[in-house]
Each structure stands twice: as C-alpha cells, then as structure tokens.
Write a structure and sequence with these properties.
Distance between the termini: 221 Å
Number of helices: 14
Helix content: over 70%
Strand content: 5-15%
Largest sheet: 3 strands, antiparallel
Radius of gyration: 55 Å
Number of strands: 8
Strand order of the largest sheet: 1-3-2
C-alpha cells in the first residue's frame, strides 16, 4: 500500500518531466529539420540565382554581339555610300573641269571669230565704198552713152525685170503644179473613188410637197369657207399661205418655213379626209399635227445619230438634225445630204487613219445652220459654228462647220475633209438641180471671167459648167505665159463663183499656117 501510494506521488512528476524532455527533443529535431530545409532552400536559391545570372550574362553578351555586328554593318554601308558620293563628286569635278576647258576653248574661238569678223566688216565697208564709187561712175558712163535720164533707165530696167519675173513665175508655177499632181493626184483619186464607191446614195430628193390634190372642186369652197373664214383660220394657225386658183383639183401651200409648210400640208390632208372644216376643228388639227411633227423631228434626229454611231449630242442639236429632214437645197434633201457627208467622212478618215467618230460627227453637223430658220444672222456655216460652240462641241467640229465654205480660217484637217465630202455629195450626178436661168447665168459668168483676161481669144463652158476651154492668141501669149494665165483664171473663178465640185480650166494655144495651092 505504501509503495502504491509512493508511486502515486512520484509517478506524475516523473511523467511530466519525461513529457517535457520529449517535447524538447521533438522541438529540437523539428528546429534542426527546419534549419536544414532553410539551408537547402537558400542553397537552391543561390544556385538558381547564379544560373539566372549566367543566362542573363550570356543573353547580354549575345545582344551586345548582335548590336556590334549591326553597328559594324551600318558603318560599312555608310562608308560605301560615302565612297559612292566621293566617286560621283570626283566625276562631277572631272566633268566640270572638262566643261570649263571646253568653255575656255570656245571663248578663245569666239574671240578669234569676233576679231576676224571685225576685220572682215572693215574690209566689207571698204569694198562697199569702192563699189558705190564704181557704181556711180558706171551710172554716169551709162547715162552718157545711152542719152537717157536716171528715171527712164529705171523704168526700162523694171519693165525688163517684170517680164523676166513673169517668165520665172510661169516656170515655177508649172513646175510646182506638175510636182503636186504627180505626188497627190494618184492618192487623191484612189481615196475619193474608194469613198464614192462605198457610199451608196439616191438621186435628187424631191422638194417638200406643197401642192395638194382635192377629191373634187366642191372641196375648194369648203376650204375657203363662208366669206373666207376657214382659209383665214388655217393661214393664221399654220403661218402658211393657201393659194386657191383656177387649177382644177389642186390647191397650193406657200411659205418659207419648211417645217410649218409640212405641218400645213399634213393638217390640210387630215381636214380633207375628215370632211369637217371649220375654224375650231382647224385649230385642233393643226395643234395635233404640230405635236406629231415635233415628235417625228426628235425621233428622226435620235435615229440618225444612233445609226451613224454618234453619241453625246446636245438635245437641241439632235432636234435641229431632225429638222433637216424638211429642208432642201437645190432639190437635195439636207438630212440625206448630211448623212451622206458623214458616211463619206468616216470612210475618208478611216483611210487616212484619223478619228472616225469625230470625222462622222463633223460631217453630220456641217450644215446644221440651215435648220435654224430665218431668225439666224449671217451664213449657215457661221451660224452653225456659233450654235455648235454654244452647245460645247469640240473645236474641230466648230471649225469644220464654220470653215467648210472657207468663211473662217481652216484650223483642222477635218475641215478640209468636210469641204471635200460636201463637194462629193453635192457634185455627184443627180445630187442637185438648179433652175435653167441660174444655170445659164453661171455659164455666162464663167465665160466672162475667162474672156476678161488679156490675150484670150474665146472661151467655152462645157460639161454643164464643170469645165471651161479657153483659146488664146498665140502671138500674144507664149507657152509659159499660158500656164500662168490658166492658174490666174482658176483662182479668179474660185473667188467669184459658187459651184459644187470643181471646174477644170483648160487653156489651148495653137499656131495654124494656111496656104492656098493654085
């Protein structure tokens, strides 16, 4: 019991002491393990830092090496550029030195020439003075020998020089005309004949019909109306005069405006077919016909431009092209004439390698001034050119319109081609017709122009005025003077006459000897 009690008293402190010592041992063992771990981590961190440091040093060395290489390369390129610049500068210096040497030589040469020229001028002045003295002495001698005054001698000399110059001019004209014909005639004939062959055209188109046939004579009274009220209403609405005479079954419409005359013709035909003729109905029919004609004019202009391949034409010009359908000149319909000229222009321009659409445009619009009407000022060529300029046509087109009758200076090859195509269209057989009175007057004027020249014995217009043959006096006009006379007559015909195509001037000089055998 005592032992048990003793153990009870001794054992707890012992256990506490043992536990304390065990705790101390465990703490120390943990502390040692922690220190070892910390040391390991520190060592590991040192190794890692040394590794990172080495890698950083290597990367820095690599970057430094790359930068060094780049710097050396850039330095080398800069040196190369400097060397190239130095070479160029040295070449420029060499060239400048050569140029300076050349300039120096030229200056010396010019100085030498100027000195020589000065000496020659002095010599020339001296010779000029000598010549003047010599001429004065010769003039005195000539005046003394010829017993003529200075004025008389000058007149004689000028007359001789004039004759010699006339002979030289005749020879030169003959030579130049021959050369021009040899070089240009064959090409021109081929070009124009090709254009004419490829352009199919009808003969003279009829004028706008102004005579209207009536179904019976009673219709005349209905057209006139009570106290003439119907005919007055018709004339007021259309602006066209209605002529009712004794001719059976026909009335005549008279007026200068071809479009209004066509409106009047169609309106009258509608009234005759309808049978109702009174002022109110007349006004209604005329207004309706005016709208129809305007529509026809617009459509005709558009269709013509489309068929010829001409685009971007101002609407007002398109309308005027359509109005040409109702315009005639010497019996030739102006729209057909303009289409024909446009086609000819396209063919000729194609042969000459020119702008074909531009050439056809010039040909179509060359007579556009004839569609303006009586309100235009000046000729149709000048008025048409002003109109084309107003509507922003190209300068070539404006000059072709204004210059195709040589009323304005020719500034483009298209103007010359329009003149040629216009002459071909107007001058072909059957294209135009003129009155007998105008025809006879033209022939008479052609012959009068020829006979007005000195030395002409007689002149005969043949081939419908397309050729004139002139007989000259052989004792007054020699062969060389005949050539000059032919040239002068042709120029005079060009200035004084207006005609389609061309007129051939032929001068004939012959000497006849007649003897009678008995």
């Amino acid at each position: 019991m005592q032992i048990f009690q003793l153990l009870v008293y001794i054992l707890p402190p012992v256990c506490i002491a043992i536990g304390y010592f065990v705790c101390i041992l465990i703490y120390r063992s943990r502390q040692i393990a922690g220190e070892k771990k910390v040391k390991y981590l520190v060592d590991e961190a040192q190794r890692e830092s040394e590794k990172i440091k080495k890698e950083a040093e290597l990367a820095a060395k690599a970057e430094l090496y790359q930068r060094k290489e780049a710097f050396e390369k850039e330095t080398q390129e800069t040196r190369m550029e400097f060397k190239l610049h130095e070479r160029r500068l040295s070449k420029r210096e060499d060239n400048l030195e050569r140029k300076m040497e050349l300039l120096t030589k030229k200056e010396r040469y010019i100085d030498t020439l100027s000195s020589n020229i000065t000496l020659k001028e002095k010599k020339l002045d001296e010779k000029k003075l000598e010549l003047e003295k010599f001429i004065e002495e010769e003039n005195r001698t000539l005046l003394r020998i010829s017993n003529m005054s200075k004025e008389e001698a000058e007149k004689l000399l000028l007359s001789r020089l004039g004759k010699e110059m006339d002979i030289k001019c005749s020879e030169l004209i003959s030579k130049k005309v021959t050369e021009a014909k040899e070089n240009a005639e064959q090409t021109a004939i081929s070009l124009i004949s090709t254009a004419i062959q490829r352009c199919a055209a009808t003969h003279t188109s009829g004028n706008i019909v102004s005579a209207i046939e009536l179904p019976n004579n009673e219709m005349k009274g209905r057209i006139i109306g009570r106290e003439g009220r119907n005919i007055r209403a018709f004339e007021k609405a259309t602006g066209i005069d209605v002529i009712v005479d004794d001719t059976p079954g026909v009335i005549v419409l008279s007026g200068f405006d071809s479009v209004r005359r066509e409106i009047a013709r169609q309106s009258m035909e509608k009234l005759i077919l309808d049978g109702r003729i009174h002022p109110a109905h007349i006004e209604e029919i005329v207004k309706e016909t005016e709208k129809e004609i305007e529509q026809i004019i617009q459509e005709t202009g558009k269709q013509t431009c489309f068929e010829l391949g001409i685009h971007n034409v101002h609407p007002e010009l398109v309308k005027l092209v359509g109005r040409l359908k109702y315009r005639t000149s010497y019996g030739q319909n102006q729209l057909q004439h303009s289409i024909e000229v446009s086609n000819l222009m396209g063919i000729i321009a194609g042969e000459l390698k020119l702008d074909v659409p531009l050439a056809k445009r010039c040909g179509l619009l060359h007579d556009i001034g004839k569609a303006i009407g009586p309100e235009m000022e000046g000729t149709h060529a000048v008025a048409g050119a002003d109109l084309a300029k107003r509507y922003d046509e190209r300068p070539e087109v404006v000059n072709a319109i204004g210059g195709h009758h040589e009323e304005t200076p020719v500034e483009s090859v298209y103007t010359v081609l329009v003149s040629a195509a216009d002459a071909i269209s107007a001058g072909r057989p059957g294209a135009r017709r003129e009155t007998l009175e105008k025809y006879i007057k033209r022939l008479e004027k052609l012959e009068n122009i020829a006979t007005s020249f000195s030395g002409v014995e007689s002149a005969y217009a043949i081939q419908a005025g397309r050729e004139i043959r002139i007989m000259v006096c052989p004792d007054k006009v020699n062969d060389k003077a005949a050539s000059k006379l032919c040239f002068d007559i042709a120029r005079e015909v060009e200035e004084q006459l207006e005609y389609p195509g061309e007129v051939i001037v032929t001068v004939i000089r012959e000497t006849r000897f007649v003897e009678h055998a008995k």
